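User: Hi! I'm working on a homework problem where we have to compare a predicted structure to a textbook description. Could you give me the structure for the chain below?
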Amino acid sequence: MNYRGRFAPSPSGPLHFGSLVAAMGSYLDARKRQGKWLIRIEDIDPPREVAGAADSILRTLESLGFEWDESVLYQSTRLDAYGEAMNELQQKNILYPCFCSRSEIQALGVAGAEGVIYPGTCRTRPISRSNSGAKRHAIRLITQDRPVIFTDEIRGTISQNIAREIGDFILRRADGLFAYQLAVVVDDAYQGITDVVRGADLLTSTPRQIYLQQLLDLPTPNYKHLPLVTDKNGQKLSKRLGSDPINMTNPVAVLISALSFLNQPLPPEHPASIAEFWRWAIAQWNHLSTIDPK
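Assistant: Happy to help. Predicted structure tokens:
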């Protein structure tokens, strides 16, 4: 299958340096492999969205010389597809309503890979059809007590027992919004994505996504997780925490900074143009160099 990669930002603020690094890694990997590179705007969480952020991100990427191969896909147009996937899982009898509050989960759960592990309270709680809609509730997916194992092309073999390290996870939130894990799996398959190159903050999400792919009979892409850009306090740069947008005064310098962070060879001389930068960077790209062996 021909290579198809993607960059999938959420419109919760302007593009910052950490997102640029992820975009660059995925773009270089696609172009080095003579593949397609797509953009997907993950706009299924309205409370976190910032007006105009999606357009701002696209303008910044375009100004930095990124070229995407197909129309931008907005997840807000894909809600019916997520509902169909939920119905398919429901027919397998592996979903259940969860009425637990955050405080209840905090009190009963133990620390895991991503916060508190859901203790399974509602999995065995009898809920009749007549009262299941009487109170707002999330929908969780039953997980199996077995490891999900995959090979990350940068980090090697990864193994996670979702049931023990995460717990039954949410596919639809109590506010009715679909969860990221479901939407990304459905859309990667819909867009024919063969290779996912993204930040290491999503490494612990990958087993859940592979588990969903298996349940929905969807293909599993190849995965590469890039080093994470952090601030001076070791916190991941994020739009939610108000990380500074990219300074576009000198676009080539910004691109070189991102390339340097990815531990790639830098041009011997300052590129005369953005196009010249990309020609160099694509020719030199080696995903295995992104993690410094030192």
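For your comparison, note the following. The radius of gyration is 20 Å. The chain has a mean pLDDT of 91. Good luck with the assignment!
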